[in-house]
Design a protein that fits this description.
The chain is of the alpha+beta class. The protein has two domains: 46 residues, Pemi-like Protein 1, Chain: D (Ribbon); 39 residues, no CATH class. The protein contains three helices and two strands. A two-stranded antiparallel sheet has the order 1-2. The longest helix has 11 residues. 0% of the residues are buried.
Amino acid sequence: MNTAKVTSKGQITIPISVRREFGIFEGVDVRFFNENGRLYLEKDKERTEKEKKILLKSLCGSIDEPWIEPREISHDFDKKLEEWI
């Protein structure tokens, strides 16, 4: 089990292992909700354009395929992205 402390500003750091497992990186939106008195954090399922660009930038150099400019990406972006990650 991973734990985190809340800072005086109400912030927490999500452990790197959790961020990697759930694909949470800078710019990704998460939501908090209460279910039966338990607090949950959930990654928003909708990928925003900003999130897609951040993910592509973070993948640059880590994949065998040549860099693809965001404007060159076709409508099957999500399908290709899922293959890469």
